[in-house]
Specification:
4 strands, binds zinc ion, mainly beta, 4-stranded antiparallel sheet
Length: 82
């Protein structure tokens, strides 16, 4: 999937040039503005936010937050207090 990002200066679409994994849940992505007159090159932080649907093969060393709706649904399915 291509990540759409717009240059914060001129609002032109920017293209991801490279990315670097800082951890399993945090990545730095370098973008370059497609407007030749602007030429802005910048880094965007991409960070895991929350789970919408649990993994069938979870990495148990990670403690990833779930969205409140998923937590409620799981608690109802397991008949646990929320
Ligand atoms: Zn720009």
């Amino acid at each position: 999937m291509r990540i759409l990002n717009r240059c914060p200066h001129c609002r032109t679409r920017a293209t991801a040039r490279s990315s670097r994994d800082m951890s399993l849940t945090f990545r730095e992505v370098t973008f370059m503005c497609n407007n030749a007159e602007c030429g802005h090159t910048y880094i965007v932080n991409m960070e895991f936010a929350r789970t919408l649907s649990p993994s069938a093969t979870p990495d148990l060393s990670l403690n990833l937050p779930m969205s409140p709706r998923v937590r409620e649904r799981l608690a109802q399915q397991l008949e646990l207090p929320i």
